[in-house]
Amino acid sequence: MRPFLRGCLAAAAASLLLAGCSGGGPAPHEKPAAPVSRKPVPRPTPTWNAHPASIAALGDSITRGFDACSLLADCPEVSWVTGTRSQVDSIAGRVLSATGIAANSWNLAKSGARMSDLPDQAAAAAAKKPSLVTVLMGSNDACRDSADDMTPVADFRADFTRAMAGLHTALPKSQVFVASIPDLKRLWEVGKENPLGKQIWKLGICPSMLRDADSVSESAQTRRDAVRARVVAYNRVLKEVCAKYEHCRYDGGAVFDYRFTSDELSSWDWFHPNAQGQAQLARILYTAAFAKP
């Protein structure tokens, strides 16, 4: 017997609620019940603190300001994230007090670092207990002796995933801001117009992209396109893994999309950002980090 009819008969036998068994409709003068929504309730967007109390910067030579001030040397004072020079207007300079930059920010990046080094940098950051961790890393995974030597995407994903898991386990309330990898082909397009720069590139700077800078052969163009495609794939990994954590924010491709000019590249190697380039990174990444999602 149907549950509905069984309920009606039982009610009739007890002489109760007879009107309610007439056909399942509402009683006279009674408004129909509102339909129950079956749509999932969206999870609220996590609060993003625009005024972190401390910052730890992870990454490679870009975050260290390599070749920005002098040849073959780091220059963290012009770093886009922890720099102290006013001309750069770093993220730390924007969100921390002038006296708090040195005391409450740590540049833990290492020139030459690849994604496989990020878990160790993340562990070092966790020991500082910062309220914000920034990550800009991956260029060196694409800048290898040849395109065949580039870090496989699966390995890149595994290393980044391990670093993010470690950070969020050790610092569950800290924010993590992940910047995209620059478009290395754009840097080649700009730097190849400088005769001195091309001579310096022959010393071995990012050979997978910059070797034979003037060559228009099909093999050279195919190689450059392969490097660019790998950077695009790396950035996709950064976006996807970051999205799994509520306190992680990706820059949306802001660094990759930025069109660096020759005025923003180091006059020592025509590849790394100079102080002006670091200032541009600070500007676009501050906007990406602290603008409303």
CATH topology term of one domain: Rossmann fold
Number of helices: 13
Oligomer: single chain
Q: Rg from C-alpha positions?
A: 28 Å
Order of helices and strands: HEHHHEHEHHEHHHHEHH
As residue ranges, the low-confidence spans are 1-37, 40-45
- Strand percentage lies at 5-15%
CATH uppermost class of one domain: Alpha Beta
Protein name: SGNH/GDSL hydrolase family protein
EC number: 3.1.-.-
GO molecular function, one term: hydrolase activity
Organism: Streptomyces fildesensis
Describe the protein.
This protein has a domain at 55-143 and 151-183 and 235-290: Rossmann fold (3-Layer(aba) Sandwich). The chain contains 13 helices and five strands. By secondary structure, it is an alpha/beta fold. The two termini are 55 Å apart. It has a five-stranded parallel β-sheet with strand order 2-1-3-4-5. It has helices at 3-13, 61-64, 91-95, 101-104, 118-128, 139-142, 153-170, 184-191, 195-201, 207-210, 218-242, 254-257, 275-290, and strands spanning 55-59, 105-107, 132-136, 175-178, 248-250.
List the helices and strands and how they pair.
Elements: H1 3-13, E1 55-59, H2 61-64, H3 91-95, H4 101-104, E2 105-107, H5 118-128, E3 132-136, H6 139-142, H7 153-170, E4 175-178, H8 184-191, H9 195-201, H10 207-210, H11 218-242, E5 248-250, H12 254-257, H13 275-290
Parallel strand pairs: 1-2, 1-3, 3-4, 4-5
Question: Outline of this structure?
Answer:
With 293 residues, the chain is α/β, with parallel strands linked by helices.
Descriptors:
single chain, 293 residues, alpha/beta, Rossmann fold, 5-stranded parallel β-sheet, 13 helices, 41% helix, 7% strand, globular, disordered N terminus
